[in-house]
Amino acid sequence: MMPGVVSERGAADRAAVSELTIAERTVALYASAMPPAYRFRRGDDAPLLAWIAQGADLLGSRSLRLLAGRLRGYELLALADLVTPQVAAEYASDMPDSRRADDAARLASLTTFKVGVSRAAVERGNAPVVDDCPCACTGAVAVWGEDPDDSYEIVCPVHPYASARAPFAGGVAA
User: Fold this and answer.
1) What is the DSSP string of 19-75?
2) Residue 2 above 60 pLDDT?
């Protein structure tokens, strides 16, 4: 095959991957036959895209989106330093090999430069899913200090306070 020429399978993989969100690509790569400790090299686009397509096919769209939502929920809680032991255990059961999970996330992000993300995938996004969210789906997480004056509430990154209170604008039903 000549350099710069994309095979039919490569074009199909490219199109399929562009329809996935980054979280879906991460989950698909984790589930794929990507070799352990794989390192991307220039020109490795075709196998990388093929592994993502393979993982997506293996999981099916329903499982892929559920796992991507759970990953997204974990990521949001981790960024806010709100991961509870239950949430950490849920994440570890989904992706027990942390090195592979990190590699999959890094490589999935790289594909945004290679194939982009379709408008449909951006609009669909992945709604975060967390079974044992610290806010208990209220939109606010209580943070307790030693002194009552050190206690406060923060907005839950998974269930934003504004959307949890959306029907009530300023205490008045909308």
Assistant:
1) TS-HHHHHHHHHHS-PPTT----TT-HHHHHHHHHHHHHHHHHHHHHHHHHHHHHHH
2) no
